[in-house]
Specification:
Elements lengths: L1 H25 L1 H7 L2 H21 L3 H14 L4 H14 L2 H14 L4 H14 L2 H14 L4 H14 L2 H14 L4 H7 L1
């Protein structure tokens, strides 16, 4: 039920955005009176990002990546599109490109804990434990009440050889959510 309600709301937003994009694209003379050039670029970038999400949802990864890249060409500061592009590139197996995009997300919006955690996961996969730890510490600093982030930080600390730090992180995860199984499994 929630999913259907979200789809209805999203369809309404897509329709509204589609009308604005149509106005900007088809009636540029009128659009210049309504929107600045920067606003027109941002509107078009949003449309490309929404198209990318739909393509990604339909399993069309390559086309989705093209749409996210077009969104970023129009609006290089579009953080959510850059984040999604980074995750898509990672899925495609382009880990270095994914890390570059995720680093840019963190630079553009340092308060985005999810981007820090995703960057940490990508760096861990690449074998950069120091970078992964730094990213996870930043994520935990932003969202200290997340048992998942605490548990993942503990895992990285254990891999780095800091067992005392790992135990402390897993105990904190358990304190935050006494029913969080990964923290118990790691602590055991």
């Amino acid at each position: 039920m929630i999913r259907r309600a979200w789809k209805r709301r999203r369809r309404g937003a897509v329709l509204q955005l589609g009308c604005v994009v149509l106005a900007v694209s088809v009636f540029p003379v009128y659009a210049q009176d309504l929107f600045s050039e920067q606003e027109q670029r941002q509107i078009k970038a949003q449309a490309h990002a929404m198209a990318a999400e739909d393509l990604y949802g339909a399993g069309q990864l390559e086309q989705a990546i093209e749409q996210w890249r077009e969104a970023l060409r129009l609006d290089p500061g579009f953080v959510s599109a850059r984040h999604d592009l980074g995750l898509a590139l990672w899925q495609r197996g382009q880990l270095d490109d994914a890390i570059a995009e995720l680093r840019e997300v963190v630079r553009l919006d340092p308060k985005q804990a999810t981007a820090h955690a995703d960057l940490g996961d990508a760096l861990r996969q690449k074998g950069d434990l120091d970078g992964a730890l730094a990213a996870y510490r930043a994520a935990v600093a932003l969202v200290p009440h997340s048992p998942q982030l605490q548990s993942n930080l503990g895992y990285l600390l254990a891999r780095r050889g800091d067992l005392d730090g790992a135990i402390a992180a897993w105990r904190e995860a358990i304190r935050l959510d006494p029913k969080y199984p990964p923290a118990y499994a790691n602590l055991g």
